[in-house]
Design brief:
Blueprint: E1 2-6, H1 13-22, E2 26-31, H2 34-42, E3 46-49, H3 55-64, E4 67-70, H4 80-98, E5 104-110, H5 132-142, E6 150-156, E7 159-161, H6 169-180, E8 183-186, E9 192-197, H7 198-211, E10 216-219, E11 223-227, H8 228-239, E12 243-246, H9 255-258, H10 267-273, H11 282-287
Parallel strand pairs: 1-2, 1-4, 2-3, 4-5, 5-6, 6-10, 7-9, 8-12
Antiparallel strand pairs: 9-11
């Protein structure tokens, strides 16, 4: 299968590219710069120069491909609304190019939260709050299943990690600890964050692209929920700094997300797709230390 991927040079996209190539697929990866293009090539893909705002490029690439995966996001947490709006337009352009073709379109999403229990793949995404716009975007794309697109969404937890390479939202805590001289947590620290190793997540993106029925959402969760205090404590030990509670506002627009208890299950995903995470869990990757800059 020839697969068009946005975000193919990113922390997750690069390993998704490697995973697809290793299983016999050809990858055409969107790259907004020469350095990004080199990362796509290193992962085994063929770069296509352009960014999320180049809608004609996205449309043409999706039309020529046998399927698509959307992973790119600007990560401008200072203007989440603009980032979410840009992402929505890009996904719409790709989705429109695939209408009526029966081709697969797998998009990135996030795990949700439900008070008092583990969130599942079948729980609806929020349409309000700081990331509610992403939930609206995801549901709009999944609805293209009624228009001849085999859509699926891989819900990623807050921390998609790999030792020495990436830590997801835990990486934000590492950066804040280095800057402030203490490892911070909000609230009482009991709120739980699910996590997944990025190579386990990559295998699920491939499985969803290859086999998911139209309109399917899956949870890429290997650790159902480490507490924020546990995460902050390990980071503090590795950096040699104290652990300290801070107000939610200290993390800007992400603070409210950090304060939510959000454990999630992947039981249905594992049973349905035979997905079996096999890489280290988040706390083990954090305990390895030697965090990259």
């Amino acid at each position: 299968m020839r697969v068009f991927i946005t975000g193919a040079s990113g922390h997750i996209g690069a390993v998704v590219t490697e995973e697809l190539v290793a299983h016999g697929h050809e990858v055409l990866g969107l790259a907004r710069s020469e350095s990004s293009a080199q990362k796509v090539v290193a992962a085994g893909g063929t770069p296509m120069l352009g960014g999320l705002g180049d809608l004609d490029v996205l449309t043409n690439a999706a039309t020529e491909a046998d399927g698509a995966i959307h992973l790119a996001f600007s990560n401008d947490f200072g203007d989440l609304e603009a980032s979410i709006a840009e992402e929505g337009l890009a996904m719409d352009a790709i989705g429109a190019a695939l209408v009526g073709t029966g081709k697969p379109f797998t998009i990135v999403s996030g795990t949700t939260w439900v008070e008092g229990r583990l969130a599942t793949e079948h729980d609806p995404l929020p349409h309000d709050g700081p990331v509610g716009g992403r939930g609206i975007n995801v549901d709009r794309i999944l609805a293209l299943s009624d228009q001849g697109v085999r859509t699926s969404a891989v819900r990623l937890p807050r921390s998609v990690h790999e030792r020495y390479a990436a830590y997801g939202f835990a990486g934000i805590l590492i950066g804040a600890a280095r800057q402030s001289g203490f490892s911070a947590y909000v609230g009482d620290g009991s709120q739980r964050w699910p996590a997944v190793h990025r190579r386990d997540a990559a295998s699920l993106f491939r499985l969803a692209l290859e086999t998911a029925e139209a309109g399917t959402a899956v949870n890429a969760v290997s650790s159902e929920g480490d507490t924020m205090l546990e995460i902050a404590t390990v980071i503090g030990e590795q950096l040699g700094v104290p652990v300290q509670q801070v107000p939610v506002e200290s993390f800007g627009p992400l603070g409210i997300i950090f304060g939510i208890d959000q454990p999630a299950s992947s039981a249905w995903t594992r049973d349905t797709f035979g997905w079996a995470p096999s890489h280290p869990v988040l706390l083990d990757d954090l305990r390895a230390g030697d965090y990259p800059a």
